[in-house]
Prior knowledge:
Blueprint lengths: L29 H4 L16 H5 L7 H35 L5 H47 L9 H14 L1 H28 L1 H20 L1 H27 L1 H6 L3 H53 L7 H27 L2 H11 L20 E10 L4 E10 L4 E6 L5 H8 L7 E7 L7 E2 L5 H7 E4 L10 H5 L8 H10 L2 H6 L18 H14 L4 E5 L7 H12 L6 E5 L3 H5 L3 E6 L2 E6 L1 H7 L2 H8 L7
Bound molecules: adenosine-5'-triphosphate.
The site of adenosine-5'-triphosphate has 15 residues, from helix 13.
Amino acid sequence: MTTSPAPTPAPSDPAHSPAPASPAGPPAPASTRALSAPAGTPDHDVPPGALRSLLPVLGAHRATVLRTCLAALVDQAALVALVALAAHTVGTAVTEQRPPVPGTVAVLIGLVLLRALATWREMDLSHDLAYRVLAELRVRVFDGLARSAPARIAGRRSGDLAATALGDVEALEFFYAHAIAQLIASGIVFAAAAAVLAALGPWLLLAVLPAALLLAWSPLAEARGRAERGARTRGALAEVSAETVESVDGLRELLMAGALDRRRARLRSAGRRLARAQRAEQSWETGAGAARDLLVVAAVIGVVAAAAHAASAGRLDGAWAPAAMALALGALAPVAESAASLGRAGGLRAAAARVRAAVHAPALAPAPAAPRPLPPGPLGLRLRGVRFDYGGEAVLDGVDLTVRPGETVALVGASGAGKSTCAHLLARYWDPADGAVELLPPEPGHPLDLRDLAEDDLRSAVSVVGQEAPLFHGTLAENLRLGAPDATAGELSEVARICGVRAIADALPDGLDTPVGERGATLSGGQRARVALARGLLGGPRVLVLDETTAHLDHRGDAELAEALTAHSATRATLLIAHRPATVRRADRIAVLEGGRIVEEGTWDELIGADGPLARLFTREGSTATA
Ligand SMILES: Nc1ncnc2c1ncn2[C@@H]1O[C@H](COP(=O)(O)OP(=O)(O)OP(=O)(O)O)[C@@H](O)[C@H]1O
């Protein structure tokens, strides 16, 4: 009964099943909360039209879509014509006692060849179309993640995100490659076959219509159940994916904590939940397939009965009776397959909704309509009345802080005070809810709001180096050039030297051309910090923000990097976020962040002498002794 060789994925096939689900994380800014909907959101909670809303992606491939539909149409029509003509030929041979004429045999052979060619063409075109659309969607999803990062990433498990970026998009392959063209072609072929049946006799048409209507209605009838079962499978799949990624990432910690057995047990039970969910989907799929086959068989029997009755009453040429049966079978089988495809596509709604959310993710830091040019020369930075929250209570509540060109200011505060948040605002991951983050050109009175700068200008002027600046798979030199691909070999070598990366490279087999391994795994934490700082300095930023960059280094390393930073520091504004007193006291000025505001500013000696918040902070941490 199967008429199309298109491989249809089992619902349990991970390659075709969107994965999702995530535990709750810290609150994200309001604008991003919609994007962070847990991937295990039941399909029936997904707003309708998710699949439809992705169809415009096909717009750029209109010609291929048309050719695919045409190939599918020829494929299905050739098959129906072939079985109908073959049946008619046999009927003629039986009723008129004469063998088929050579012309009929030639047409039959031609139809076989046409069908084979059309099947190949349809498969080729539909997969080409699907893979091209998916490649584009992957990039759009990545762009969406990048636009909404890092808020979207906060609180999501990496396995879950990978599932969204890859699993959900992969799952849609079935929709683009098989469902659309098949649906259109089967509709047209059925309409044509129905017209022929009606011309042969109205009872023939009446015999197939109920089955066709039931088949067309079945995806709607089973939509809710399918959505629930699909959501269960995808939730379980996402759990397995997230658990696996997390476990592999934290293998060392698990090993050291002796927690491998417990982790294995968790993985096993997550795997069992997935197996149960997949089995439930598969059983339903098999049962639904059998029910659809039954409907087609019932309709064909009805056609046989009606044709036999009409033939015996002399209303139908005897040779047309088997042809009518073949026509009914040939036209209904693709309808049944389309119903199966539509049902399966319905199970992809949640995946489509997540892809849509990622694709249409609003920019958390939208590009300005008319960017202001960045003046040459040194720059300072200013947070002016900055208020910011992550969707809950204000983290920053009116921060005023200025770092003049050539100045180094240390920003200190208790853990969770909002220091990194200030750094993130300077990197423009987000914009403040109130107030402004500005760059200060030498001439007073012309501050530049970061929101008014073009992305490239901002990145070339401001460099933010964090504590955990991840390295990428590639060589040391490639990692250093990340933000400054056009830096000369001389500049690279100079920055590597002053940050102590040269010494690291000299100990490696290929120097700066040595691969650093996945996430810089072949380097120590302190070495990675040096590479991160060198990377941040390479482009010659005019504003440098160091967020606990030297926390991994010993006192000597910290002092060496401080020395390295003095090069060009006269033309740079540096904001230093640090906990270590020795690092903090080197700054020209220190600002203390407390309760979402700057509560104290001054030199180390002034503030320690004043016995205020800074003194309390460092005394509480018992660290003045190590200063
Ligand atoms: N992406 C996020 N989503 C929600 N809340 C966040 C997010 N990032 C930080 N927070 C919260 O904002 C507050 C300030 O965090 P931040 O990282 O800025 O503090 P910090 O002063 O840098 O702390 P530390 O010294 O420990 O690094 C904390 O309460 C933290 O839980």
